[in-house]
Amino acid sequence: MSTGFFSTEKIAFEGEDSRNPLAFRHYDPNEVVLGKRLEDHLRFACAYWHSFAWPGGDPFGGQTFDRPWFPDRMSDEMAAANLKADVAFEMFSALGVPYFCFHDGDVRPEGDSFSENTKNLNVIVDLFEKKMAVTGVKLLWGTANLFSHRRFMSGAATNPDPDVFAYSAATIKTCMDATHRLGGENYVLWGGREGYETLLNTDLAQEDQQMGRMLNMVVDYKHKIGFNGTILVEPKPQEPTKHQYDFDVATVYGFLKRHGLEKEVKVNIEQGHAILAGHTFEHELATATALGIFGSVDMNRNDYQSGWDTDQFPNNTPEVAMAYYHILKAGGLTTGGTNFDAKLRRQSLDPDDLLAGHIGAMDTCARGLKAAAAMMEDGGLQKALDDRYQRWTAPDAQKMLNGDLDLAQIAEKVIAEDINPEPSSGRQEILENYVNRFV
Ligand code: GLC
Ligand code: MN
């Protein structure tokens, strides 16, 4: 039986001309693009935390949302966790998203001890197992919240206190177990407090060693329990810390290399985090695909003026189109997905605002993906790249690349052949105009 939290149990695809605010206008899960259903391309997921656990606070004010499962409305914490799960799965089903994602801390009450936390989590995992079987909703990824409780204030894996390292390792183990049990397709690590507030109290080399060890243990444990999902690290440059070690994709790649993990771990790239790092989303995606570590995306934007992580639903089709272009070019989302790590604005109080936020986001992504697919089919961007680098396919150019010629030999060649390069146009405006034809 429905809880009646939302005004509708199913959001339908009504097409572009629909004026119904609670209908899809561009996302028809069954539409076939490049030989694949849109649902299978996009692999949408909802984030449990923002929609169901976040009270609507900001740095200047507390709770704005009035949810029946919040502590001010329901004192029995396990009953509240159950009601929250009922509403969450009603939203996933109404939207028709194939996946969801959660942290342990979003779904179970915080107990007085590690064992109580694990016990609480397992009760909810049992419940999820049943709900997933009934609704067909799957788990894109699970993760551990190693940043909210005060014990993690100086980091989890990188904490100066080895007891916190141990507590974190144990928590990650239970969350990996839960993810494995629920058939999760990935496991995410976001090191929100793995960084520093001041270098005056921070030993960078020591903390790097701790973080490398933790991630190696995660990978070992994955193999030990036969978890076939992908381990993903999610970069972010700062906030809540002044500096976060997983700064951006390139920094994470360096870390993985240093600890021998570049073949085992991929990245979950969040649009908003890319902006905070002073990059574009496109840059982070292109970097990850070039390095062979692209895994999944958190498709939520930041406000470009605010300078902090606003986690808004995506609504910019051209930006999303270029993101999917890079994803399609790299072979698409494999175990990854499009997760909306997005929250409502704190004034959006109505339950149906949650539906509307996701509907708009899914429509934006569908439009973006279709535009990206059209660019792929047309092949114009690829042709421009092929043309631009064409001269590198010549045997003489290849010799410079593969080491057949060294610096001195190349210098001789420049003199002997009187090489005097003539620049050619980068054609940026032509390419920008080309993209605009599709978006
Ligand atoms: C936190 C971060 C979010 C990340 C999630 C998963 O909620 O804010 O960006 O995706 O943890 O670890
Ligand atoms: Mn995220």
TrEMBL record:
Record: residues binding Mg(2+) 1: E234, E270, D298, D341
Major subcellular site: cytoplasm
Enzyme class: isomerase
GO molecular function, one term: xylose isomerase activity
Active site as annotated: H103, D106
EC number from the UniProt entry: 5.3.1.5
Cellular localization per UniProt: Cytoplasm
SUPFAM superfamilies: Xylose isomerase-like
Cofactor note: Binds 2 magnesium ions per subunit.
PROSITE patterns: XYLOSE_ISOMERASE
Domain Xylose isomerase-like TIM barrel, residue spans: 126-280
Catalyzed reactions per annotation: alpha-D-xylose = alpha-D-xylulofuranose
UniProt xrefs under InterPro entries: Xyl_isomerase-like_sf, Xyl_isomerase-like_TIM-brl, Xylose_isom_bac, Xylose_isomerase
Top-level taxon: Bacteria
Cofactor(s), names only, from the UniProt record: Mg(2+)
Keywords associated with the record: Carbohydrate metabolism, Cytoplasm, Isomerase, Magnesium, Metal-binding, Xylose metabolism
Pfam families: AP_endonuc_2
Binding site for Mg(2+) 2: E270, H273, D309, D311
Subunit record text: Homotetramer.
Record family assignment: Belongs to the xylose isomerase family.
HAMAP family assigned to the protein according to its UniProt record, in alphabetical order: Xylose_isom_A
Protein name as it appears in the record: Xylose isomerase
